[in-house]
Structures are given as structure tokens and as C-alpha cells.
Amino acid sequence: MSQQSDLVNLGLALDRAGGIALDVEPAGGILPPWAGVLTELGISPLGEDARFAAAQAAKQTKGAPLPEVEAVFAKLCGPANAALCAEAVARYRELATARPKKMFSHAMAAAKLNRYDEYAPGAYVLRCPSCGAPRLKAVLHCDFCGADIK
Predict the structure, then answer these.
(1) Cβ contacts of residue 90 below 8 Å, gap of 6+?
(2) Would you list the domain boundaries of the chain?
């Protein structure tokens, strides 16, 4: 029972730290709650240039830099729960690098799938069934051969 409660507490601690890390804006920045997590665990934050370089290298759209988050998760999990730590880091990486869907993304995908711009623009021309001449007036009678256009 103690082992299970320890894992639950570890999961809650990882969730709390990951949530605070994801709230950091801009990507690679540092906010007081995240700085508090780092000092609470005794982890020194990266320098400002290194923070933004690490976030840019990982292509993060939000959140604290990945090396800091990895260090926090490793400190929380310890060597006994390395698999859980790796899973938490992978999930954080997925959330921190997710690109938001654009408003017209589904419409753009459908437009790329069905490319109608390959066809020349134009109108439907009503032609005479007997001689093939185009209809010139509003009347449905061919001026060239005298046949009725249907």
C-alpha cells in the first residue's frame, strides 16, 4: 500500500512541476513559480541565453527549457523510477512543442486535396446540337442552321 501511495504522490509532484513548467511564457523564459520549483529542488537555472537557445533547439512553443525540466523530473523521480521520468519528459516535450491548429487548417487541407485551380476558369456554353455553334442570344434558336437549341 505504501508503494502505491508513493507512486501517486510522485505522479502528483510530476504533474504539478510539469504544469508550472508549461505555464512559462515565452518559451525558454522563467517565471517566479518555476524559479520556486527550481530552488525548492536545489537545481540552478540555466543562463538567459542558454535558456532561449535550448528552447529554440527543441522547437518549443511554450514552457520552461527542456534541460531544466528533465533535471527537475529526474530529481523528483530518482534513479528507481527512471522509466516514469522518461515517460514524463516525453509527454512534456510533446506538449511544449505542439503547434496550435489554425482556424482554417481543415479547409486548407481539403482545398489541397481537391485542387480545382488546375481547370481554366470559364462558363458553360450552350451549343447547337446539330451544328455545334454557340448560342448568341437569349432565344433558344440557332442563328446558323435554324435548329432549336435544347
Answers:
(1) none
(2) 2-96, 124-150
